[in-house]
Structure to design on (623 residues):
């Protein structure tokens, strides 16, 4: 039997001693961070005290670059700290004791982390604590999967209880109502249908309501002419595969068909199947419409050529009788921006003309932007389709040099989102409209989702408002949508831990625009790690199986993305015409993933995002 050379043991002892010094330095960093955050740790709800300590410990360790330490620990056959999130102190202590034994050194002092923290009520294991918190916030897990499914209710859910029942049957666990759409009457009916479906199915369903928050959008554009273009469907060779159809009359024949009113209405009742109606369209092109059906309230016509219908166009029947088209809806206009153009955002929200050349101008719904934005700050519009840099700012306008747009330009319409990733906007996340909506939320919801939360002060504001409304049983979810929100997440988590139960939603749409798409994966992973350390459930949101929900067919990338959502405690789906199939597909994907163990060996390079949190004093003012 071969003997292990003494030099191998000596080498192991030297590596262990070096690693031991590195771990003891981590102990000092953690102790310093606990001391800095002592006041805030002791303010959290006793049930969350141990979780708050673990959050601070994790942020402290991640403020250091420990990749060399990880390599040394792996070489020694010890835990490389790659799965320490749920219990940092226990991992560090176990590793330190093992290193001392290998290095043949005295057992180290493990009491240096005792900085006077009130122990609270819960000293249990981290994973068990996360499971408990998830059940409290999101309800019991289904039998076939651990990850819950949240679904945004469409407006139709207010009047269609069968739709809600089908959503529940397909696998919905949390129903999301977006306060940015519809109103209290519709919300109440949606919630009534969800509660009824929960009772019928004996499922633990939760109601989650999103506050609108200070969403920054583009202002109005002057409408275009009241013209509607309707054309037949053609194949690749230009042959007609389906003739164009239109309903003439005030009562739509089919919700999917375009329709226009006609005056006088009596003219419609005199038409007959097979009759031809003549007109000159908005381009002065002669056109013929073929009557295929006559019903109460209107006439269905078909035609083989493109027609531009406009208000007051004259229709001439075969017998010479005439009628005119009624008022058509105004055409939505857009600004077509290219790289190199100038876009001026203005404080005024008066409709702007839809000009076809630079410089372009459009309103911005956030007046504070003109006070906080500085030259050189980046601006993204329309979900990141258009981007640029601020050239100059005045109290009433800012000029932006467009640096990002499609190869042939990109359209910018009214009501499109604006992001200022480099700007510290001095606004509160809780708007006056949010405060009005909270009165309804407080009475009807299980969870309130706070949009565009950026600071500890924002969280305090919401908790104070819920307390004032007597809604201390309503749980809170923080939506992380901005760079500022991500950077302030440790502080915000400590603040929300004063509440009964809380979660975090990774709102990947705005977050991707703010961070840049190439950094989104990194940021969402860091959020998952931090929340696991805090034992806070995470909701994975935005564009999950979006093609399936909207078009009925998923992309391969979407299926992979949905499977990755199993790393969170809940995955959110947005509405779409194929939402029932999408819920069922996601439930199947998550169920399959629940049966697998995900390999995870993470290299813990230094994270700069939370340096301020680690070093600040517990009584540091502000948010």
């Amino acid at each position: 039997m071969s003997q292990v050379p003494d030099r191998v043991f000596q080498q192991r002892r030297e590596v262990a001693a070096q690693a031991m010094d590195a771990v003891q330095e981590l102990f000092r960093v953690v102790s310093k961070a606990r001391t800095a955050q002592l006041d805030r740790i002791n303010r959290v709800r006793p049930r969350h005290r141990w979780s708050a300590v673990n959050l601070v410990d994790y942020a402290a360790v991640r403020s250091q670059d420990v990749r060399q330490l990880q390599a040394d620990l792996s070489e020694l056959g010890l835990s490389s700290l790659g799965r320490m999130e749920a219990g940092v102190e226990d991992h560090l202590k176990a590793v330190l004791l093992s290193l001392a034994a290998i290095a043949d050194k005295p057992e180290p002092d493990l009491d240096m982390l005792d900085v006077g923290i009130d122990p609270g009520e819960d000293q249990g294991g981290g994973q068990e604590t996360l499971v408990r918190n998830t059940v409290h916030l999101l309800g019991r897990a289904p039998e076939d999967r651990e990850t819950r499914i949240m679904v945004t209710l469409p407006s139709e859910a207010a009047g269609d209880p069968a739709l809600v029942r089908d959503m529940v049957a397909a696998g919905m666990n949390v129903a999301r109502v977006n306060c940015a759409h519809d109103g209290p009457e519709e919300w109440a009916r949606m919630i009534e249908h969800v509660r009824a479906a929960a009772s019928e199915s004996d499922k633990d369903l939760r109601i989650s309501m999103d506050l609108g928050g200070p969403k920054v959008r583009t202002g109005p554009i002057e409408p275009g002419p009241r013209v509607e273009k309707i054309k037949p469907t053609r194949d690749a060779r230009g042959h007609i595969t389906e003739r164009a159809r239109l309903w003439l009359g005030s009562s739509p024949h089919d919700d999917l068909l375009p329709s226009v009113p006609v005056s006088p209405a009596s003219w419609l009742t005199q038409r007959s199947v097979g009759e031809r109606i003549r007109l000159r369209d908005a381009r002065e092109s002669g056109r013929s419409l073929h009557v295929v059906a006559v019903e109460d309230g209107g006439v269905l016509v078909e035609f083989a050529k493109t027609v531009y219908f406009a208000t007051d166009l004259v229709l001439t029947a075969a017998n010479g009788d005439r009628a005119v088209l009624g008022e058509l809806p105004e055409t939505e206009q857009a600004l077509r921006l290219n790289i190199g153009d100038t876009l001026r955002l203005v404080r005024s929200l008066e409709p702007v003309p839809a000009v076809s050349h630079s410089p372009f101008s459009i309103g911005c719904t956030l007046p504070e932007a003109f006070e906080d934005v500085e030259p050189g700050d980046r601006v993204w519009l329309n979900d990141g389709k258009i981007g640029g840099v601020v050239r100059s700012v005045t109290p009433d306008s800012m000029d932006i040099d467009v640096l990002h747009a499609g190869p042939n330009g990109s359209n910018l319409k009214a009501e499109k989102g604006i992001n200022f990733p480099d700007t510290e906007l001095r606004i509160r996340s809780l708007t006056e409209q949010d405060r009005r909506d909270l009165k309804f939320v407080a009475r009807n919801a299980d969870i309130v989702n706070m949009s565009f939360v950026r600071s500890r002060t924002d969280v305090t504001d919401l908790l104070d408002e819920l307390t004032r409304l007597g809604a201390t049983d309503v749980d809170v979810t923080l939506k992380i949508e901005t760079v500022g929100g991500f950077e302030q997440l440790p502080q915000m988590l400590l603040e929300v831990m004063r509440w009964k139960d809380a979660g975090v939603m990774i709102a990947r749409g705005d977050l991707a625009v703010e961070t840049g798409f190439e950094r989104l994966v990194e940021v969402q992973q860091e959020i998952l790690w931090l929340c696991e350390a805090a034992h806070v459930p995470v909701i994975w949101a935005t564009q999950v199986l979006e093609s399936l929900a909207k078009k009925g067919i998923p992309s391969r990338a979407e299926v992979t993305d949905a499977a990755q959502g199993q790393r969170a405690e809940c995955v959110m789906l947005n509405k779409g015409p194929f939402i029932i199939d999408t819920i069922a597909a996601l439930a199947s994907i998550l169920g399959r993933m629940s049966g697998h163990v995900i390999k995870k060996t993470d290299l813990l390079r230094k994270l700069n995002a939370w340096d301020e949190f680690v070093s600040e004093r517990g009584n540091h003012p502000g948010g």
